[in-house]
Design brief:
By secondary structure, this protein is of the alpha/beta class. It folds into 3 domains: 41-139, no CATH class; 143-275, A middle domain of Talin 1; 287-419, OmpA-like domain (60s Ribosomal Protein L30, Chain: A), CATH 3.30.1330.60. It is 45% helix and 18% strand. The chain has helices at 7-35, 142-169, 174-200, 204-209, 213-235, 238-241, 248-269, 272-275, 287-291, 305-308, 318-333, 353-375, and strands spanning 41-48, 59-62, 65-74, 83-90, 102-107, 114-119, 132-136, 297-304, 340-346, 390-394, 412-419. The strands form 2 sheets. The chain has a 7-stranded mixed beta barrel. A hairpin with an 8-residue loop joins strand 3 (65-74) and strand 4. Helix 11 (318-333) crosses helix 12 (353-375). The longest helix is centred in the N-terminal third of the chain and has 29 residues, at 7-35. The chain starts with 6 loop residues before the first helix and ends with a strand. Residues 278-283 have low confidence and may be disordered.
Length: 420
């Protein structure tokens, strides 16, 4: 036996149904906008000799905007043929994709995969036909070239370090080895001079990207200090010339070398010239600017790496998930208007820098993803737009730029809330 609804109940039920439909439509609109569904789509093909890092479903961007995805990867029919990508692009971008448009493969970050970038053609060219073919624009990866150039500078520093260590270890026999060590160091300085000259002229990858007079002056001055020390050694004068009698000169030389190391680290991480370039500024992460917020309040919890992850990995343990459940609840209590959430991971300074950077970056991403998916720490309300900024940063072996009074392990993960 059924019972009919009253007028008031029918109106209430109808309102609930309309609300659910409206919310569903809104969600579909948002997801459709992000996925490029709205207004239909068209497809184009492009061939590359190598598509390392590109996967089906990868994002396609036009002038930085999400415009579609990689629908399919078509293998070569014969050895030597190109690999073809079939790109699905939203119709609202059709007027930007002309017949003379180019397609590039771009690095998402230093450690992530690649996305596909469509460079619009000229305004006078015709729009590309559906299933038309675009030309590939293969360019050197700027991020990889920066890493290679910085690696060359680091190699020079290692050679300098080796020569200086030879001075230290051969304290008693330095008279016999002094001329040989001087020749080695002069050879290293010649290489460094050539590198600096190239940088000053704007040649090479680093010379073009780091065309910064201040940075070049600092490096030249530091190099001149080392040259002066070698000249004193030849003449039996100065701190290094007195190395036969005292160890103070060695300590002074090591201090100068450390100044050079800090300067090169500044070139690699804190160079405003590099970060200001459109191609690079989205990939270079500066821990100092991310973690030092003098205009905001800072609230923090931290966990030892060993309490959250398997040793040397970015794999959460059961204990780690339990601790992050408490951390997620704590972050959700910090409901400050305009607050930003930051996950920072640090490694033991005894680890290799490249390995530590990769691991900490992934650890910070894993923690943030867990807190977002399990505890919705990015949500501040019921509406889809009620969110706050969340970011993650892997600091590798670099120490925290924030002055600390609390004793903490070097390998740790910090949950930070910045509030205005």
């Amino acid at each position: 036996m059924s019972q009919s609804l009253s007028r008031k109940q029918a109106i209430l039920l109808g309102a609930c149904v309309l609300l659910v439909l409206a919310l569903a439509g809104m969600a579909l609109s948002v997801f459709g906008e992000r996925a490029g569904w709205g207004g239909g789509h068209f497809r184009v093909h492009v061939g590359f000799a190598d598509i390392a890092g590109v996967e089906v479903g990868g994002r396609v961007r036009i002038q930085g905007m999400d415009a579609g995805d990689v629908e399919a990867i078509l293998p070569p029919e014969q050895p030597g043929d190109k690999v073809k990508l079939r790109l699905r692009i939203a119709d609202k971008f059709r007027h930007l994709v002309r017949a003379d448009a180019k397609v590039q493969l771009a690095s998402e970050s230093l450690f992530a995969g690649r996305s596909v970038r469509v460079v619009p053609g000229s305004a006078i060219a015709q729009p590309i036909d559906d299933l038309g073919e675009l030309q590939a624009n293969v360019q050197p990866d700027a991020i990889e070239q920066i890493a290679q150039a910085a690696g060359k500078l680091n190699k020079l520093l290692v050679e300098v370090d080796t020569v200086m260590q030879a001075f230290r270890d051969n304290g008693s026999s330095v008279t016999q080895d002094l001329l040989g060590a001087t020749r080695k160091l002069n050879s290293v300085l010649t290489k460094a001079d050539a590198t600096l000259t190239s940088i000053e002229k704007g040649e090479g990858t680093l010379g073009k990207l780091v065309k910064d007079e201040k940075l070049y002056t600092e490096l030249t001055q530091s190099l001149q200090m080392v040259k002066s020390a070698i000249s004193d050694v030849k003449n039996g004068e100065g701190s290094l010339g007195k190395l036969l009698k005292t160890n103070d000169a060695y300590a002074e030389a090591m201090s100068s070398l450390e100044d050079v190391r800090r300067m090169v680290n500044s070139v690699k991480q804190n160079s405003d010239a590099i970060k200001a370039l459109p191609v690079v500024r989205n990939y270079v992460v500066d821990p100092a600017k991310e973690l030092v917020r003098p205009d905001m309040k800072r609230f923090r919890k931290w966990y030892s790496e060993a309490d959250l992850f398997e040793p040397g990995k970015a794999v959460l343990t059961d204990k780690g998930r339990g601790l992050l459940d408490d951390g997620g609840a704590w972050m959700n209590e910090q409901k400050y208007v305009g607050a930003e959430l930051m996950i920072a991971a640090f490694a033991d300074q005894a680890q290799k820098p490249e390995f530590a950077q990769t691991v900490t970056t992934k650890q910070a991403e894993i923690v943030l993803e867990y807190l977002r998916s399990k505890h919705s720490v990015h949500r501040t309300g019921w509406w889809w737009w009620s969110t706050r900024t969340t970011r993650s940063i892997g600091c590798g072996t670099s120490p925290t730029p924030v002055p600390e009074t609390e004793k903490m392990p070097m390998a740790r993960i910090e949950l930070i809330v910045f509030a205005p």
